[in-house]
Amino acid sequence: MIATEKDLKTHTMMLDGEAVSFTEGETIYEVAQRVKTDIPTLCYDQRLEAFGGCRLCVVEVEGQRLPVASCTTKATPGMVVRTSTATLEKHRKTLLEMVASENREIDVDPLRGYAAQELATLVDRYDARGGRFRGKRSGATREDDDNPFILRDYDLCISCYRCVRVCAEQEGDHAISVMNRGFETQITVEFEGLLKDSACTFCGQCVQTCPTGALADKKALRFAELPGAIEKTRTICAYCGVGCSVDVLTKGDTMVGIQPAMDGPANHGALCVKGQFAYDFVQHPDRLKTPLVRGDDGKLHEADWDTALDRAAEGLRRVVDQHGRHAVYAVASGRAPSEAAYAVQKLMRAGWGTNHIDNCSRA
Ligand code: SF4
Ligand code: SF4
Ligand code: FES
Fold it and tell me: What average pLDDT does range 142-146 have in this prediction?
């Protein structure tokens, strides 16, 4: 029998001196997040099974000799937890300095991906110094992977495995995995090949969860040098009927990328290759900007909107008069905004009295 919310027992624990209630099964990190206690993380993504790899989220639990990872430790009744002592903060700073010393670059372009600046933000917050630890480095960049979508810049990898886990747990694809251990650790695909020869569907989820920009959006990075601040506009992907929420990234009048909305009710941060990367048509030089009307010579000629709309209306009216209202139909483009698709179906249903309307977004 599946337990309902009502069946789940509520208990109390102490968090930084405050009594907080929690539900059986919640981790310390989940409880802390709920009551807005800020514990730093690097390997955590709320959509994925907790992993306990980065140790940044450690907390002190009374009665335990060593700090524990709050993302993997379940809250228990009467537990007394401290999330921010001098020892913990020192531990976190040292961990960040180890990571910052190994990576070629910390302050990466935000166009690399949704979470790309997580490490940089934490390094700033803890004033962690790069270069403090010198020695071997892990992760070799795959410059030879010439796919058009994903940059594999593993010099910046911190082995948080978020990419591997999102690919398996969210996308169900298992395209990427981990090879070797310690400093030899390498994110890879089968037989150390290229992404295009693997099971990868180029959904971009690994890019968007990577906290360092080691996996990055190649298409968005084409606009890295374009001046201007990045603006995000929330909208719905119109390619199909799922209704994934996305943030369209712009610099001035230029569309520079798309990121999935992590709080999108239909997609929770997931997208397919079309929703993630197929937006070049918006600014394509071949895109039609003027209506075309076929002339007596059988060729298409540029025309103004009134001429084009009159011609379409005449044609539709002629067919309806001769053959009835169900002799006409309309197909709306999946690349058109949702509002335009709505207007087309309204025209056919309310205007012409037929349900003969289609759009690839119904899929
Ligand atoms: S793009 Fe999607 S399918 Fe390809 S490796 Fe990344 S998460 Fe996996
Ligand atoms: S590529 Fe990014 S997400 Fe994947 S393990 Fe490295 S740092 Fe983590
Ligand atoms: S967030 Fe808990 S160990 Fe990484």
Answer: 93
